Amino acid sequence: MKAVNNCLSEIGQSREPHLSTAIPMHHRTSPPLRVAPDDEAYWLSIRASMQPMYVNTQLVNTRRGPAPFRVREVIRSLVDLSLAYELDEYEPFRELKESGSSVAIRQSLAAYFGASADEIALTRNAMEGIATVLNGVTLQPGDEILATRFCYDSNLAIIHQRVRRDGVVLKFVDLPFGPASEADIAAAFEAAIHARTRLVSFPHVVARTGLVLPVKQISEIAARYGAFSFVDGAHSAGHIAVALDELGCDGYAACLHKWMYGPRGTGFLYIRRDRIKDVWPLFASWSNKPKDSIEKFEEVGTVFKALPAAILETMAFNLEVGQAEKTARLRYLRDRWARQLGAHDRVTLLTDLDAEPGTGFAAFNVEGLAPQEFAAALLSDYGISVRPFSMEEDAAMAGIHLSPSLANSVEEVDRFVEAATAILARTHNSFRPTT
Questions:
Q1: Which positions fall inside the Aminotransferase class V domain (predicted)?
Q2: Does 230 share its domain with 368?
């Protein structure tokens, strides 16, 4: 019970040794990295602290990342209380709202991502925040939603439902598949938007290729037309530095279980203070929160409180590793395989490895070998998992995706390169070059 009591005592408090360093991203200078991305002894210690339970060598981590053991221990220590306590004067989670949120949690998220606590609502995942905004922005028949073919399929499903239900119009921005400059991306949004556009929805990071969209420029374009700019941040939060008040978007939704390595079932929704009133909550506020209160988005019913109770431990882990160090490590792992494999005459990279800011994602195609064939051979013969993909709205946009995480090692990445090179060599005779 001592460990449990210690955990409970921290739920409603800011963890001063850690959160005192949580300066918003845009206020930070760029000092030298505290740990080099190729310091393998250090990064192996981080991997050991995460204790990933992979069956195969998992080089795709876009769905979820392994929570550090320390975060899992907090959750384990609180499971029984979360399932058994009564709502009375002995309430052990008295600092947490019914939704699992607390002032300390919102403050820690706001500090890390460059926002104010009154602009951050705790959610159970990115999709909850995404569904809130995509369903909550008021639209009239004939109004237009501007999106991209790179939006997550669940996001597009919500938009398609609004098209059917409300008679709104969905329009796609014509973006290239593969490398693209920020200027070209912004120009494409500028060309697509018009007076009937009311909502602009796009990912910060394209999950398959790692392309980073210029949020600030796109948000400025949307603002000129009075449109609500909404960012899917599932793959930027914890992956690259995010300063929400610098990005200028009206809304941003993310989860904490991918690149923040937090509990599955936790996330957050950011709505810029002056736009909160413009978004209806997914659930009507039963406590009559005013329309300009960020807390109206947190009234979602009963949650399993052991999960949000571990968020402060998650934030402590990320602050101790450092966002700049995390980003540098992820890019190092990407470059280690992508620059070698990209030099092969049958391989076409779909990712600009020199783009800034860059991610740990990259994708490629192999001439003469379908993505599914390559991935199947890699898994069956070498026990290495990568992801063949095709975009939901355009199957011609296809390739092979890798996204190593902090739980991956250089040895695993190098073994992938060796295996991929072997597959390319043994399929050489069956390959017929195009003329």
A1: 105-415
A2: no
Tell me, yes or no, whether 123 lies in a domain: yes
Give me the number of domains the chain comprises: 2
- In tens, the pLDDT along 282-301 reads 999 888 899 999 999 999 98
Tens of pLDDT, residue by residue over 245-281, are: 999 999 999 999 999 999 999 999 999 999 999 999 9
Residues 148 and 282 in one domain: yes
Instruction: For residue range 375-405, list pLDDT tens digits in order.
Output: 999 999 999 999 999 987 788 889 999 999 9
- Are 224 and 127 members of one domain? yes
Read off the CATH number of the domain in which 155 is found: 3.40.640.10
Q: Which two tokens stand for residue 345?
A: 């005459």
Helix axes 126-136, 153-166, angle to 10 degrees: 20
Residue 12 is predicted with a pLDDT of 47
Residue 17 pLDDT level (bands cut at 50, 70, 90): very low
Q: Mark whether 210 and 186 lie in a shared domain.
A: yes
